[in-house]
Amino acid sequence: MAASNVNVVVITGNLTQDPELRHTGGGTAVCELRVAVNTRRKDGQTGEWVDKPNYFNVTVWGAQGENCANYLSKGRPVAVEGRLDWREWEAKDGSGKRQAVQIVANSVQFLGSRDGSGGGGGGQGGGGNGNGGGFSPTSDVPADTSDFEGAAAGGGGGSEDDIPF
């Protein structure tokens, strides 16, 4: 029996720069994000907790990439779920092969708000405890409430005969 391979990555962090949107020759949108994720660890000499930033390149394809380019900017907190992708290429100057590992996003959730409130420290990770202080995640993309329009207009009145089971 063959073993299953799993390649799943989930990170939450802050954008270190504005998203970069481009399109393939076929017109597909490709958005590049750079996300800083802090890891907390205790300094062995001082006993103090310190943040160590890790930086990740994230690629977002299609309509979701266009949404990222339209609604995100430097400092915004995001949650990314995707897979690791390793690539290798020859340097243009002929000095040898280059390698990089990036995250190819399946989904990107916008955390915080556009005006910067509710997202923690901002910038490249900031200080403090990140999502504390009454944080409630919000989205810039409006929710589709068309499925609920009939229920709101009806006022909830009706008989048990209306239940479909």
Question: What does this entry look like structurally?
Answer:
By secondary structure, the chain is mostly beta strands. Helices cover 10% and strands 40% of the residues. The protein has 2 helices and 6 strands; from the N terminus they run E-E-E-E-H-E-E-H. A 5-stranded mixed barrel has the order 1-3-4-6-5. About 12% of the residues have low confidence.
Task: Give a quick rundown of the structure.
With 165 residues, the chain is mostly beta strands. It has helices spanning 62-71, 149-154; strands at residues 9-15, 20-23, 29-42, 49-61, 77-90, 97-110. Helices cover 10% and strands 40% of the residues.
Query: Which ranges are low-confidence, i.e. pLDDT below 50, for 5 or more consecutive residues?
Result: 118-137
Strand sequence of the main sheet, in spatial order?
1-3-4-6-5
Helix fraction by DSSP (H/I, runs of at least 4): under 10%
Query: Average pLDDT value?
Result: 80
Please summarize the sheet with the most strands.
5 strands, mixed, barrel
Distance between the termini: 43 Å
Overall morphology? extended
What order do the SSEs take from the amino end to the carboxyl end, as H and E? EEEEHEEH
Number of strands: 6
Task: Provide the β-strand percentage band.
Answer: 35-45%
Rg (CA only):
22 Å
